[in-house]
Amino acid sequence: MKRSVIKMTSLLLVFLMVTGGLGIVSAQADDTLNILFWQAASNVNPYLSGGTKELEAAALVLEPLARIDPDGVLTPFLAADIPTVANGGVSEDLTTITWTLQEGLLWSDGTPVTSADVVFTYEYCTNEETGCAQLTFFDGVASVEAMDDLTIVITFDGPKPYPYGPFVSFQSPIIQAAQFADCIGANAQNCTDQNFGPIGTGPYVVDEFLANDVVTYTVNENYRVEGQPYFSRVVFKGGGDAESAARAVLETGEADYAWNLQIAPDVLLEMESAGLGTVIVGFATNVERLMMNQTNPDPALGDARSVWAEDGSNGHPFLNDPVVYQAMSMAIDRNIIAEQLYGAGGIATCNVLPGPPAYASSNNDSCLTQDIDGANAMLDEAGIVDSDGDGIREYDGIPMSILYQTSTNAVRQNTQALIKQWWEEIGIEVELRNIDAAVFFGGDPASPDTYGKFYADIEMYTNGSSGPDPETYMAAWTCSSVSGPDNNWLGNNVPRYCNPEYDALVQAMSDTADLDERASLAIQMNDLLVQDGVMIPLIYRGSVSAHSNTVEGVQMNAWDAELWNVAEWVRSE
User: Fold this and answer.
1) Within this chain, do residues 180 and 212 fall inside the same structural domain, yes or no?
2) Which end of the chain has fewer surrounding CB within 10 Å, N or C?
3) What are phi and psi of 545, to 5 degrees?
4) Based on the domain organization, do 218 and 172 belong to the same domain?
5) What sign for the dihedral angle of Cα 446, 450, 451, 457?
6) Overall pTM > 0.70
7) pLDDT one-digit tens code per residue, 315-338
């Protein structure tokens, strides 16, 4: 069947879906699972799009060797187990990892899955002309070899303490060599049938695909788990907006699942009160935080403004003092910010790295309790006082006035307003500034308003690790990564933090394969960043979706595909 052709059944389906501008087939059809992604999929090939909507649409069909579960833990899927140094799957010198496929795996067309498919997937993505969106998953890979039908050896170009990038998670699944044989390189984008309907090992196969609208799936009769999936048909509908999608699940019962519900907390809570659905949240590593400029942003400095000096001569006038940044942190009520501005999608946090659970420090939890009286007392005891009665404390004769900037966003402006109030209660004058997101997060070295240039005392945004292992993420705050004119202000170390002790921990992690030791090193790095006042963490941000109360088995996952265990979903009686 040519899936790119719209048949009469597709037209009927679209007609049934359109009710009031955006609706879908009734969620009461027991054998049909209705999923709403208000951003529609443009293809079902994750190697040709980095968009979440395409990755999720493909996750029902294509699978990796291993996935990451909701707790950030690796779990085998097509592989028989997770290779480690202890079980011999990772070499002692950390340069190779050996994966073994489960026996008896079949593609949805009934042909065997072999190691040759894994090798082909590597060759497909790493071909320079393919334009592979997931190329970074193969960074440092020297070769991928099939040792026999079930065994794959990946060799890296140097020691790789965390070798679980290639073929792990929904961003790096296995595709069938036979189907995509003529789609490598420049022809990749022209393979419409393959990109719209890949042959896979997942619980479903694409029945029909309508670009930027709807994907319909039916059961993969060769799926390896007996009795799964429960639903005989899946409708993956795109379009509309987050509020319409939420209403379809929570208020009208038209849909079974709605993704990425970026809605005001009170509105979402009111929808949920209808009793038809449940709001679910998944947390990975994203944290809304305050970056504390370690350098002096005074415009009078000219070209030296916000520029890190190796000899420490251009440090911030007062933000580097532990008494100051500790008092500023103590004055903030993170719980109010979380409850009023984020709702289910945010949790107060004291850590830059709040997950996975094994990597989360418990050494900074005192920040969860606001203490304005304590902050004032700390500053008074340190002799940082308001000597002229104007309500602003002075630090070595310098008024403690700060510029606090962030991107233009309603939640962020409301957060700014709250923090400004609390800081002024401890004698710190605050000027607020918001910058258009396209400019703030842009990389124009000529612009004075980018977050990388950091021409302010404090700036706020969200960041997080791209996966459960934080080695690359935590390495962002080494001395060599300082953002400055020598790298066009594109260095990852935006606060301009430089601590040899921190750099040593980063180096130690790059040499350590044991997961428990890596977690310990990550906690130590997190604690330095927090306790040295490099950042003030505020909110642990989650991904918010919702499912019908008639659907059971949903396990929200912010580390992998939200639909990662869709084969286990069932309709309750």
Assistant:
1) no
2) C
3) -140, -175
4) no
5) positive
6) yes
7) 999 999 999 999 999 999 999 999
The continuous run of DSSP H or E covering 280 comes out as: strand 277-292
The string of DSSP codes covering 356-401 is SGGG---TTGGGGS--HHHHHHHHHHTT---SSSSS--EETTEE-E
Q: Which residue has the higher pLDDT, 264 or 432?
A: 432
User: 3-class DSSP state for residue 188?
Assistant: helix
Question: What letter does residue 169 receive in the DSSP assignment?
Answer: S
Whether the link from the prior residue into 356 is cis, omega within 30° of 0, is: yes
Angle (nearest 5°) at CA 562 between 357 and 209 = 160
Round the CA-based radius of gyration of the chain to a whole number and report it.
26
**DSSP assignment of 88-146, as one string?**
TSB-TTSSEEEEEBPTT-B-TTSPBP-HHHHHHHHHHHHSTTT--TTGGGGTTEEEEEE
What integer pLDDT is reported at residue 29 of this predicted model?
Answer: 60
Same domain, 534 and 428: yes
83-86: long-range contacts (C-beta < 8 A, 24 or more apart)?
83/163, 85/513, 85/514
Mean pLDDT of all residues in 189-214: 96
pLDDT digits (tens, 9 = 90+) for 526-563: 999 999 999 999 999 999 999 999 999 999 999 999 99
The candidate with the shortest Cα–Cα distance to 486, out of 301, 316, 294, 310, is 310
Q: Chain-centre distance of CA 161, in angstroms?
A: 22
Q: How far apart are CA 78 and CA 202, in angstroms?
A: 10
Judged against a pLDDT cut of 70, whether residue 15 lies above it is answered with no
Two structure tokens written together for 38: 């208000």
Q: Could you tell me if residue 164 is inside a domain?
A: yes
Is residue 11 classed exposed, middle or buried when 0-12, 13-18 and 19+ CB atoms within 10 A define those classes? exposed
* Averaged pLDDT of the chain: 93
CA separation, residue 232 to residues 564, 569, 571 (Å): 17, 11, 11
Are 15 and 139 found together in one domain? no
Neighbour-count burial of 499, counting CB atoms closer than 10 A to its CB (0-12 exposed, 13-18 middle, 19+ buried)? middle
Dist. CA 428–CA 398, nearest whole Å: 11
Given 186, 212, 244, which residue is the final one in a domain?
Answer: 186
Cα–Cα distance between 203 and 220 in angstroms, integer? 5
